[in-house]
Specification:
It is a single chain. By secondary structure, this protein is α/β, with parallel strands linked by helices. The protein is about 30% helix and about 5% strand. The longest helix has 21 residues. The protein starts with a strand and ends in a 51-residue tail after the last helix.
Length: about 300
Amino acid sequence: MSKNVLFIMADQLGAAQLGCYGSGVDSTPTLDSLAAEGMLFSRCYTTTPVCAPNRANLLTGRSPCVHGMISNNYALATDTPTYAHVLQRRGYRTGGFGKFHQHPMPLGLPPDAAYLGFTESVLSEDPKWGPYLEWVEQTCPERFERALALAWSPPPGTPPDRIERWRKARADVLGPIRQQARWSIVYPSPLGPELHDTTFLTDMGLDFLQRHRRDHENTPFFCHVSYVDPHDPAYAPKRQEMLERLVDAATMPHRVPQYRNLPAIDGRKHAPGGKGNGQLVPAAPLFKHTTAPSLTE
């Protein structure tokens, strides 16, 4: 019988941050327990350290020079086969929830991850716009402004009144918090843990698993839950309580200087047919395909 698979991924969670890899801080007891009871890998290699290309590597088993995602703000061709397509052919129901980053983030989310081979999917990326913000607005409308304040710049097509509401939330909610913070990308969250996108994505994954067990008991599943956190900016709920419990402030090292306004490197100008200068291709054609990807086994 085929095995069920739950694949959990976190963004920018370094090995040095985990107790099982010797962090010295007891902050990841659940992951440490999984490592103790399962298998812990001591070496890992990648052909690129950049977010979107590396995710494409994992999805396709190919290197950037083959799948074409040589930098962020590219879109993976929709006829590219992924492991999820292979699993579907093997009879799996595939669920994908969270961050895939196979499209240019400034253009907004694709409707779903069907083109990546996922039977069901709910997408959420760093900018927050889309299903996550909609969930907060429906679940707890009185705290929606706090969630909206954490969103990045609105994607094209956002209604003007929504943009103005976002600007006001950034100024009224996030502005004072960041002014009091020691670091520009590390500050207390205006939301409780029950409304963070980590909770939202966990709930989406659990819902998929529970419905699968109820309705598809004899079918194997593959569930990919991909968290946006702890990617910066870091605004963990109850951050101050956590720091006081885990860290002695007297032993903290001095702040590392932050360098701004460094010249940007745009890899697109070096790619065949690349436009360079930060230009992005239109969003509409990126996520449409009429034929299934060709799979070679």
